[in-house]
Amino acid sequence: MERCAEAWGEHAYDAVRAAGYKAGGGRHAVIELLARQECCLTAQEIFDRLRAGGRRVGIATVYRVLELLAELRLVQRVDLGDGIARFEPLLPDGEHHHHLVCDGCGKVEVFADDRLESALEHAAATAGYSVAAHEVVLRGACADCRPA
Hints:
Layout: H1 2-18, H2 25-35, E1 41-42, H3 43-52, H4 59-71, E2 75-79, E3 85-89, E4 98-102, E5 108-111, H5 114-127, E6 137-140
Parallel strand pairs: 4-6
Antiparallel strand pairs: 1-3, 2-3, 4-5
Helix pairs in contact: 1-2, 3-4
């Protein structure tokens, strides 16, 4: 995953520059932080982590950068059903994961499953669809919140 993240960071810088933007300041800080993440983050979480790391960036800048990265198809917006937008990198090689969400404590965990991917591809082909992207969110109770 680390090599993919590094590849995403380089890809993101190249795409931002190719679109005519500089990759300095707030853009650099957000891209750098997202390249190190394993899962989706809210704009507020990104802002808080940047500030905790000593980066002087405003929340409005974080939102503008995320909007630009989404327009350039470098991040995807993830909806976990709670009305809060989260963002995670769209890796250049197409590698991705899905999410498990605990309705009790709100914990979010990632998972990947090759059989699920095959089933999704089969369902799309059977319906005659060419799917550009998908996301799977499974909701329930984590081991800590599940009744004994």
